Amino acid sequence: MKYGKQNTGASIPRRTVLKSGAALIGSAAFGFPLLGNAQSDPIKIGHLTPMTGFLGALGDYAVMGIRLAAEQINAGGGLLGRKLEVISEDSVNPQVASSKAQRMIERDRVMALMGEISSASALAISQVAARNKILFLNTGARSDTLRGKDCNRYTFHIDIPVTVMVNAAGEALARDGLIKGKKIYALTADYLFGHDLSAAVRKFVKAHDGTIIGDELVATDVTDFSPYLLKIRQARPDVVACNLAGNQVTNFVKQYAEFGLQYPIAGFNLNTADAWAAGAGNLSGIWPTVWHHKLRTPGSEAFVAEFTKKYNKIPENHAWIEYISLRILAQAITETKSTDTDKLIAYLESGAQFDILKARKAYFRPWDHQLMQEAYPFTVMPPDQVKGPQDFLVFGDPVPAPDQSLEVLAPPKSENTCVM
Amino acid sequence: MEFVFFLEQAVNGLVLGGYYLLLALGLSLIFSVGGIVNLAHGAFYAIGAYVSLEVMRHLGFGGSIVITPVLVALLGILFERFLLRRFYTADPILSLLVTFALAMVVEQAIRMIWGASPLPSTMPAAFKGSVAIGDFLFSRYRLFILLVVLLVMTGIWLLLHKTPFGRVIRAGVQKPDMVAALGIRLQPYMTAIVMLGVATAALGGVLFGPIAVVHPAMGSEIMTVAFVVVIIGGLGSFWGVVLAAMLVGVVRGITIYFESAAGEASMYVLMFLVLMFRPRGLLGKRIERFE
């Protein structure tokens, strides 16, 4: 029987239905603007960050952080006597991020772009910024290449780069004897950021006499890690290196605990929100962070109090970074009494100091536009000491130590290919 | 030794296939009987995971496995009565749009009720860890999931093949006009099928919540794989979906064993090959309805 022929009439509409279904699922990826509406002559900032997808939970914190900063600035009279208006939108993916950035410049006439967590989208926006000669503050994307071979004059980077994260956690790991002479098995997020992180980890491990015995690329939409966990166990490593990102990290640590694997985890990228989502009892290992809510500085304590009052939740590192980034831009505008891109760049490159709510003030390196600041390693409390669902992390002392230069963990000029 | 590793991945793929089956079967049921592609299927999975967190607080994990799917099935009544029922005979694009919209509304509603940040969820301590059976390592919790899936599937199979209820459903899939001519109203049966479909999705959310990230967009994450399984299995076939779920799980595991970066692409290649050589899916039946 030739079922194909008989079936033609029946099967095509059904398949068309399924196809349209798939197309609809695809279009779900597009986000919608959160804020909008022009007023008379405000200073406009275009803010792009992922609000959906595997980084969406972090982007949500970023939006809350920047809103708080904008409210405080406007409550204090705005900037140069003008109101500050932040237009936040979901950046979705590099293509959408790029077209939204272009649209914000052309239609909304923003004076600067800010935001991002995804390194791939940040790269796309930074190219749009350079083409249009407009300032872009890359707040949360950490890939080294953004401040290396892909750097440009119009883009400044706030978050610590991959190399600093690896060095910050790596020093702690090396001290615990988890690198030298050890076999390390890595899982790497399969996009720009993960590849960069993997390269930095390889370099660090090699320099400290360890061996990478496996490195698995994991797609960003993976939710089931069981085949990877079996591969890890089959390889019997001494340490598992986690070069994953966003929800991936949470999925991975939960399923690692589920399978009860005992190899220590060397994590190089974990945001506080992802750590909370993993839950006490699931998370283990040593990780780096750029900021944490238990930092005992007057600035951080005030920020945590204000944020908690407004949103009824504790801020995490992406809320903080968006908050201080807008304040850095505000300081530049106030000091130069201008919204002119060239003047702002000159000010940011001048070595001006910024209060970023940490013990030490921060400044941009003029040649790669990277903000120099402290970072912190953290670990997890033993199960019997856990105090609450968001209170099970133990944060270490800042690195670099107070008597060291802020630049010791960052890639030196000799290793950085950035040419503006 | 190498072969054992290979086999271990294949066996693990079967376990994972059980979970895929749970996600895909409801989608397939509602499509086979009602002719509606339910793009909101993932939303019920997400609702299951979130409601489960609330139920667990009062009734524990065991209570949640039973109560949560029942609660979501009740939502399924409203879903069928007020939305789906209007679209059985309408242009299929309308039901696609309405269920797609519902998926977005649910995702945003979850964001408004529970917040955008992922919620911590954890399994009972007794399930943590793994057991080695022979050379193979199994997560204790996944063996438990597999057991639940087997029970549920056996139940659904018996319901569809050994009860008067199932006879009407199967007749309705093949010859709805004939069923109507015999004086049987299919609508109450359809309500029951939708309840069953969304309850299995919710059960998936309850079971997978403790080992995945519970976040508002979790529903759309599982839609793709559920679709792929339904298409590979063939519409209207119980065993087709079972076979396809296992196949997708095993092929993914084996692909990751050889080349991890290709893991997620493997199911699409599989779908492509199946559709090339067997356009109606592995065990798809000819259905002369809804054209």
- Beta-strand content bin of chain B: under 5%
Mean pLDDT of chain A: 88
Main sheet attributes: strand count, strand direction, barrel closure of chain A: 5 strands, parallel
Helical proportion of chain B, percent range: over 70%
CATH class of the largest domain in chain A: Alpha Beta
How would you state the average pLDDT of chain B, rounded? 90
Radius of gyration of CA atoms of chain B, rounded to a whole number: 19 Å
Describe the secondary structure blueprint for this structure.
The complex is a heterodimer of chains A (about 425) and B (about 290).
Chain A: H1 3-27, E1 43-49, H2 56-75, E2 84-90, H3 94-106, E3 112-115, H4 119-132, E4 135-138, E5 155-157, H5 162-175, E6 183-189, H6 192-207, E7 211-218, H7 226-235, E8 239-243, H8 247-259, E9 265-267, H9 272-278, E10 287-289, H10 298-311, H11 317-336, H12 341-349, E11 363-364, E12 371-372, E13 376-380, E14 393-395
Parallel strand pairs in A: 1-2, 1-3, 3-4, 4-5, 6-7, 6-8, 8-9
Antiparallel strand pairs in A: 10-13, 11-12, 13-14
Chain B: H1 2-34, H2 41-83, H3 92-114, E1 130-133, E2 136-139, H4 140-162, H5 164-174, H6 176-181, H7 187-208, H8 218-233, H9 238-258, H10 266-277
Antiparallel strand pairs in B: 1-2
Task: Summarize the model shown.
The complex is a heterodimer of chains A (420) and B (291). Chain A has 420 residues and is of the alpha/beta class.
Description:
The complex is a heterodimer of chains A (420) and B (291). Chain A has 420 residues and is of the alpha/beta class. Chain A folds into two domains: 43-160 and 295-372, Response regulator (Rossmann fold); 163-289, 3-Layer(aba) Sandwich (Rossmann fold). Chain A is built from twelve helices and 14 strands. Chain A has helices spanning 3-27, 56-75, 94-106, 119-132, 162-175, 192-207, 226-235, 247-259, 272-278, 298-311, 317-336, 341-349; strands spanning 43-49, 84-90, 112-115, 135-138, 155-157, 183-189, 211-218, 239-243, 265-267, 287-289, 363-364, 371-372, 376-380, 393-395. In chain A, the strands form four sheets. Chain A has a five-stranded parallel beta sheet, sandwiched between helices. Chain A has a four-stranded parallel beta sheet with strand order 7-6-8-9, sandwiched between helices. In chain A, strands 10-13-14 form a three-stranded antiparallel beta sheet. In chain A, helix 8 runs parallel beside helix 9. The longest helix of chain A has 25 residues, at 3-27. Chain A is globular. The relative contact order of chain A is 0.12. The model of chain A is unreliable at 1-12 and 26-39 (pLDDT under 50). Chain B is mainly alpha-helical and 291 residues long. Chain B has one domain: Orthogonal Bundle (ABC transporter involved in vitamin B12 uptake, BtuC), CATH 1.10.3470. Chain B has ten helices and two strands, in the order H-H-H-E-E-H-H-H-H-H-H-H. Chain B has helices at 2-34, 41-83, 92-114, 140-162, 164-174, 176-181, 187-208, 218-233, 238-258, 266-277, and strands at 130-133, 136-139. In chain B, strands 1-2 form a two-stranded antiparallel sheet. Chain B is globular, with a radius of gyration of 19 Å. The chains are: A alpha/beta (420), B mainly alpha (291). At the A-B interface, helix 1, helix 2, strand 7, helix 7 and helix 8 of A face helix 1, helix 3, helix 8 and helix 9 of B.
